[in-house]
Every structure is written in structure tokens, then in C-alpha cells.
Amino acid sequence: MNDFDHMKLDRQLCFLLYASSREMTKLYKPLLNELNITYPQYVTLLLLWEHGQLTVKKMGELLYLDSGTLTPMLKRMEQHGFIKRERSSDDERSVIVSLTPTGVELKEKASHIPMEMMTRTPLTSEELKHLSDVLQSFLQSITNEMK
Fold first, then answer.
1. SS3 13
2. Is pTM, for the whole model, over 0.85?
3. 3-state secondary structure (DSSP) of residue 96
4. Contacts of 74 (CB under 8 A, 6+ apart)
5. Residues 6+ apart with CB under 8 A from 109
6. For the chain, where are the alpha helices, taking DSSP H only?
7. Which CATH number among 1.10.10.60, 3.30.365.10, 1.25.40.10, 1.10.10.10 corresponds to the domain 11-111?
8. Which of 1, 5, 7, 22 has the fewest CB atoms within 10 Å of its CB?
9. Nearest to 102 by CA among 81, 84, 77
């Protein structure tokens, strides 16, 4: 082992996470194309299906997206009729995002995706659970580190 083995690309955690994320997103693409949504729109819908409605600020926190990325995507989703955005009556600076009936209906059409994705990965359900737990812990620790 030479002094620079730690500099090899396949030893970089950042690269492994990046490449894995890109490949996972590619696996989602055909399933999401059937629904005419992108992966970022899908995770946004997952969040709204779980919570019903959220402020743009809270969505950004939960999706790890800044408003410069989130707002244009939400505008496109609103144009497609999946969501509606309304100023809060309590605080004019706050925008509340909620599902439209079309957005709610999409949940049923997307309900097969999580199980379908499990079949497209080479890991067992136990390995997937372990990986998910490790990534949850890792994400939480690095975001706490940045605060």
C-alpha cells in the first residue's frame, strides 16, 4: 500500500454516495416516467403524502433543498396540477404547500414504487434496512456537525 492509496476515487465516501445516488435515481426513472414526474418531484410528493401540507421553509429543511432549488420545482408541480401554494393567513412571508386532488390520486398510482425498487436492488431486505439505518445516522450526524 503506497502513501496515496487513500486518494483513490473508490476510497472516497463522497464519490461512493454520489455514484450510488445517481445509479439509484436511474433505477427510479422508468417508474417515475410513467407518472410524468421527476425524482425530486417524487420525494416532494412523498413528503406531502406523509404530512398533508407544509410550509416551503419546512419542506426545504426536510428535503435538504434551498428555496432557490425548491421554489422553481414547486412552481412546475403546481402547473402540472399536483400541488397548490398559498400564502399563510398567519404570516404573509410563509407559503403553504398542499396537495390537489390530482396530487392525492397520484399516491395510489405510485404506491407500487417502493416495493418495485426493493426488487431492483441486489440487497436483501435486512441489508437494505441496515444500509438505511446507517445512512440515516450518517445524514443526521453530518447535518448536526454543520449547525
1. helix
2. yes
3. strand
4. 44, 56, 59, 83, 85, 97
5. 35
6. 13-33, 39-51, 56-63, 67-79, 101-110, 113-120, 125-146
7. 1.10.10.10
8. 1
9. 81
- Residue 123 in grid coordinates: 440487497
Q: Which three three-digit cell numbers place residue 130?
A: 441496515
Residue 25's identity, in one-letter code, is T
> How many Å apart are CA 2 and CA 25, to the nearest integer?
35
DSSP state of 95: E
Average pLDDT of the residues in 28-54: 97
The residue ranges of every structural domain in the chain are 11-111, 112-147
Amino acid at 84: K
State what percent of residues in the chain have pLDDT above 90: 85
Is the distance from CB of 48 to CB of 97 less than 8 angstroms? Answer: yes
C-alpha cell at 72: 422553481
User: What is the per-residue pLDDT for 91?
Assistant: 86
Contact, 107 vs 45, CB < 8 A? Answer: yes
- CA–CA separation, 48 vs 99, rounded Å? 7
